[in-house]
Amino acid sequence: MDVAMRIEQELEAAISRAAGSDCPPLLGEALGYAVFPGGARIRPRLCLAVAMACGDKSPMAATAAAAAIELLHCASLVHDDLPCFDNAGIRRGKPSVHLAYGERLAVLAGDALIVLAFEQLAVRLALSPERLAPLVKIIATAVGGPSGIAAGQAWECEREIDLVRYQRAKTGSLFAACTMAGAAAAGYEPQAWQALGYAIGEAFQVADDLRDVAGSEQDLGKPVGQDETHHRPNAVAALGFDGAMQRFEDLLADALAAIPPCPGAEPLAKQIAAVSRSLVTGLKSQTVAA
User: Fold this and answer.
1) 3-287, superfamily in CATH?
2) What pLDDT was estimated at residue 285?
């Protein structure tokens, strides 16, 4: 089974269970709407890529971890789009969950997806506690406080933002969970894979900053110019377009250098480089307003 099919089937199984006959119909619809159709599934693909580079010794554990991470990512998007945060009307090329189902159901759907992520791990790995406990710890650390994605969002509520801690929590933490969980699922020591995840996450954040300035809503499937609108830090604003692009390349080089020894290190490096560079392909400095 290829990677895309592994991810989609696991997500479909999770959503089918959560949105079953006992679930309030609109909540069930909102859960599916928030997850399908998906975006690039970059995070679960990274998790599985690391697991396969390490031998993929426990495919069920790796797939469950990848799906859990994607469910948490989807939950964060639902909450990020709410009027109290970004007030974004489009996500993945369609109306945001709060516009499609109302603000109350959007909050509840996001909450339910968070719980579902850990339920999926428990269901799949009930007979493998030696895999379950480390994965729960890795993934939970990436979404809560003091340095998970909830903390990253909370930095935007502070009067002064610590840029490094903000970006590492909001973006890097979940990427670190991907690399660490993929390694742990395959029986490798996860801590050695944390630096890779953080480096990829920081590169992705710079790519996202570039796309927010020089991309289009049609191509990205979400509003652009959000950083300027919400007065958030942006690498292009700080470094200029060319400087931000160079920063992206430097971070990608750091990420590739951080791959720990493993049987599939070379193909993993090629995959990370290809996916990362695809994020900034076609962006032009002249599209950025002076």
Assistant:
1) Farnesyl Diphosphate Synthase (1.10.600.10)
2) 65
